[in-house]
Write a structure and sequence with these properties.
Elements lengths: L23 H6 L8 E6 L3 E6 H13 L9
C-alpha cells in the first residue's frame, strides 16, 4: 500500500503494563531519542495523538504571539 508523501502508519501492541514500543522507523523519521518527553493527547471520539514536547511548546508560543481577534461590534 502506498501512503501519501509525508504520511505514515504503524501498528504496535500494548504490553501487559500498558506500554508500547515506538517503531524504529518512526523514531528515526521524527528524531525521537531516549530521554525525550512525549505528550499524549486524547479525545474520546477521535483517539490518541503523540507528539514531542517541543512541538507543543512551539504551538503554544505561536498562539501567545498571535494578534488578538477583532472585537465583535454587534
Amino acid at each position: 500500500m502506498n501512503s501519501p508523501q509525508g504520511k505514515h502508519a504503524w501498528t504496535v501492541k500494548v504490553g501487559e503494563k500498558g506500554q508500547i514500543v515506538i517503531p524504529k522507523e518512526a523514531r528515526e523519521i521524527f528524531n525521537i531519542q531516549p530521554g525525550n518527553t512525549l505528550i499524549i493527547l486524547g479525545d474520546e471520539g477521535q483517539g490518541l495523538a503523540i507528539l514531542k514536547q517541543e512541538m507543543l511548546a512551539k504551538f503554544a508560543e505561536a498562539i501567545l504571539k498571535a494578534p488578538p481577534p477583532p472585537e465583535d461590534e454587534s
